[in-house]
Amino acid sequence: MEKTLSIIKPDAVKKGVIGKIIDRFESNNLRVAGMKKIQLSRADAEAFYAVHKERGFFGELVDFMISGPVVVIALEGEDAMTKNRELMGATNPKEAKPGTIRADFADSIDANAVHGSDSVENAAVEIAFFFSQRELS
Ligand code: ATP
Ligand code: MG
Questions:
Q1: Which of 5, 8, 56, 117 sits between 20 and 30 A of 21, alpha carbons compared?
Q2: Tens-place pLDDT, residues 74-129
Q3: Residues annotated as catalytic (active site), given as ranges
Q4: Could you tell me what percent of the chain has a pLDDT over 70?
């Protein structure tokens, strides 16, 4: 079974929609294999989003990701990476299809409710970044 990483970002945690977002996953055959609520340090966020460090929005992205706790979730299911990206919707919530997580819960391109791995290879790296083997089942 394929795995992918989801992060419920600080805006969605503050809004109190953790449960509603997890329901989207479970209702679409994505199983929670691992989950925890954590406060990222600046070093954590910089390392996690290192691929974007040359982008103009990197500083804002890191500031936003450490602005409050996040929920990190390892999801498992058939085509989990692609399915999660479909459920999330476009990066900019204004462009996200109706019924997607970002269309329903996100406010802006910065505060866009969720992260999702963008390839199966990156998913493995991202899951290992947050979870030890004993935290996954
Ligand atoms: P994520 O990686 O968080 O799942 P994504 O894969 O849809 O989002 P990326 O291109 O990987 O989008 O960008 C990472 C994050 O950086 C986005 O979720 C968004 O919050 C922020 N971001 C991306 N593009 C911009 C932009 N043009 N202006 C401001 N923030 C941006
Ligand atoms: Mg991305």
A1: 56
A2: 999 999 999 999 999 999 999 999 999 999 999 999 999 999 999 999 999 999 99
A3: 115
A4: 100
The encoded tokens of residue 72 equal 């990190």
Q: How many angstroms does the Cα of residue 136 sit away from the middle of ligand 2?
A: 22
| Measured distance CA(89)–CA(103) in Å, rounded | 7
Q: Is the CB of 118 under 6 A from ligand 1?
A: yes
Residue 30 confidence class, pLDDT cut points 50, 70, 90: very high
Please give the distance, rounded to the nearest whole angstrom, from the Cα atom of residue 133 to the centre of ligand 2: 24
- CA–CA gap between residue 111 and residue 10 (Å, rounded): 8
What was the pLDDT predicted at 95?
A: 98
Q: CB of 135 closer than 6 A to ligand 1?
A: no
Nearest residue by C-alpha to atom 26 in ligand 1:
57
Q: Which long-range CB contacts under 8 A does 87-95 form with residues at least 24 apart?
A: 87/24, 87/25, 87/28, 87/30, 88/113, 88/114, 88/116
Between the two ends of the chain, the Cα-to-Cα distance in Å is: 12
Rounded to the nearest integer, the mean pLDDT of the chain is 98
